[in-house]
Amino acid sequence: MDEYSPKRHDIAQLKFLCETLYHDCLA
After folding, report:
1. Nearest of 17, 23, 22 to residue 9 by alpha carbon
2. HEC profile for the chain?
3. Residue 17, φ and ψ in degrees, nearest 5
């Protein structure tokens, strides 16, 4: 169970990063 938590957190962070980069590109 401990190994699963960090993975889900990484995915959420990755999504947030992608969205930020996407908005930066549009700006």
Report:
1. 17
2. CCCHHHHHHHHHHHHHHHHHHHHHHHC
3. -65, -45
Q: Which residue has the tokens 């990755």?
A: 14
pTM for this entry = 0.55
Q: Write the CA distances from 27 to 7, 10, 14, 20, 24, integer angstroms.
A: 30, 26, 20, 11, 5
Integer Cα distance of 3 and 24 in angstroms: 32
pLDDT digits (tens, 9 = 90+) for 2-24: 666 777 888 899 999 999 998 88
